[in-house]
Structures are given as C-alpha cells and as structure tokens.
C-alpha cells in the first residue's frame, strides 16, 4: 500500500495529446473544459486572421482560434477527426482552439519534461514551455497562456 502512495505523490500532470499537422502537442488537462466536434463557426469581421470566429456552445458565445494559423502553419483542413477544444483560462475566459485530432490523455512526471532553450519571441516555439517524453514519443507541451494571448502573435 505504501508503494502506491509514493507513486501517486510523484509530481505528475495530465495532458491531452492532440495532433496539429504531423506533430503531437500536449494541452494541460486543467485548462480543458470540453472537447466538441467541428461545428458552424460564425466569422467576425476585422478579427485577427487566426481567429476563425465564434460559436454558440449551449447558449455561451465562445471565440474560436486556429492554433495552426497562430503558429504560421498552413490553414486548417477539417476532417472527421477535427475537434474544437474549449479552454477555460482565468484571464481570457473561455476560448476554443481547433486541432486536427485528439489522441489520448497522458500523465507526465516533472522529470519527463525537458525545457527548451529560450528562443526569440518571433518564433512559434515561444508557445511551447517544454517537451514531454512519453514512451518513445516526444510531445511538445503548449504554454496555454502564450497560445491564447492576443498580443503574442508570431508575425
């Protein structure tokens, strides 16, 4: 019984692993409110190019952004696997982010996460706070606040 207690006290965090293009990214599960299938998004005039628009989620208006466009990748191609992840963030409120696919939930211990070398602000890696090692796979871990921060554009 004591061994089980020791393992659970280990400093671990859960991440939802998503695919964007051919890369795997992790989103801290504590920020995730909901995961929904792609649905009709209403475009908002004069919004940032990476903001796809808004959607009505059970009576709540939720802004939706494309992580692909925010990181200056090619535009989203929606498939049956595409999802909108609804994030709850204290400063920004609720926001949806579009991902190509939701894969799994993984638990990573602090020692399984390497911090990348600091790069310039104009680099899409500024959205990444660490690289998680899960088995033989590497997962880039998003800094959620940097991703959704409107002033934090790569351009």
UniProtKB/TrEMBL annotation:
Span of domain CheW-like: 12-153
State a GO cellular component annotated for this protein.
Answer: cytosol
The protein's matches in InterPro entries, at most eight in alphabetical order, are given as: CheW, CheW-like_dom_sf, CheW-lke_dom
The UniProt entry, under Pfam families, shows: CheW
The UniProt entry, under PROSITE patterns, shows:
CHEW
Biological process terms in GO annotation: chemotaxis; signal transduction
- List, alphabetically, the PANTHER family matched: CHEMOTAXIS PROTEIN CHEW (PTHR22617:SF23), CHEMOTAXIS SENSOR HISTIDINE KINASE-RELATED (PTHR22617)
| Name used for this protein in its record | Purine-binding chemotaxis protein CheW
Q: Which organism is it from?
A: Roseburia zhanii
């Amino acid at each position: 019984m004591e061994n089980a207690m020791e393992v659970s006290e280990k400093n671990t965090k859960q991440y939802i692993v998503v695919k964007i293009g051919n890369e795997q990214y992790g989103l801290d599960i504590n920020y995730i409110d909901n995961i929904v299938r792609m649905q009709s998004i209403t475009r908002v005039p004069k919004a940032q190019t990476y903001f796809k628009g808004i959607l009505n989620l059970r009576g709540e208006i939720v802004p939706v952004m494309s992580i692909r466009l925010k990181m200056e990748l090619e535009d989203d191609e929606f498939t049956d696997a595409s999802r909108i992840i609804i994030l709850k963030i204290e400063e920004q409120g609720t926001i949806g982010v579009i991902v190509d696919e939701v894969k799994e939930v993984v638990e990573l211990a602090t020692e399984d996460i390497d911090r990348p070398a600091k790069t310039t602000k104009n680099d899409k890696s500024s959205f990444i706070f660490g690289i998680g090692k899960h088995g033989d796979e590497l997962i880039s871990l998003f800094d959620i606040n940097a991703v959704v921060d409107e002033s934090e554009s790569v351009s």
